Amino acid sequence: MDGNISVADAIRARYSCRAFLSRPVGHETIAEILGIAARAPSGGNLQPWHVDVLTGAPLAALKAKVAASLAANPKGEGTEFPVYPPGLADPWRGRRFACGEQLYESIGIPREDRPARLMQFARNFDLFGAPVGLFFSIPRHFGPPQWAHLGMFIQNVMLLAAERGLATCPQEAWAIVHKSVGEALGLPPERMLYCGMALGYGDEAHPINQWRTERESLDAFATFAGF
What we know:
Blueprint: H1 7-13, H2 27-37, E1 50-54, H3 56-72, H4 92-106, H5 114-122, E2 132-139, H6 144-163, E3 167-171, H7 178-185, E4 191-200, H8 218-221
Antiparallel strand pairs: 1-2, 2-4, 3-4
């Protein structure tokens, strides 16, 4: 553990990495991260999260299964939840658009080159070259509060990874192949896949890792009273 990095430093260091080195990450490191991350709060201490961690041959088998599914049905298998709300309006639509434009601009893909953009999106299912994949699921009868608690757990995982010099990319894209992932992982019917996450050592020299999304000013999202 790097004792010289603060929580604030880890938050600032975290970003969605989309190019990884092949350098492996040890079981002990990941187990430590997940064990500490489980200190995330949850109402009634339900701890609604489950995570499957894959590397090596099991991860390669999952990727192969997903690749075969996408080859047969390029649009995917449908999602069990809407990744984005229908009719997304501004300012949220504008933020999403700006994020996409920054991403593709960083690797020289113009907006009109749809095939190249689709090929880049497909790299989600190779975990952008990361050696480790984490797949987060939740009991399907749980509601929004428990999903929020799952998110807190996932955030802890990413910050603890950043503390250790690791990079991550949370990927809701895996939701479009939830059937194939569920079969590969042996998820029971009562558990729903939420997302995957790439984890490893980031390729800091790659252009796709050279940009960062912007954040709104404090005045745009916070209201103070009584101070």
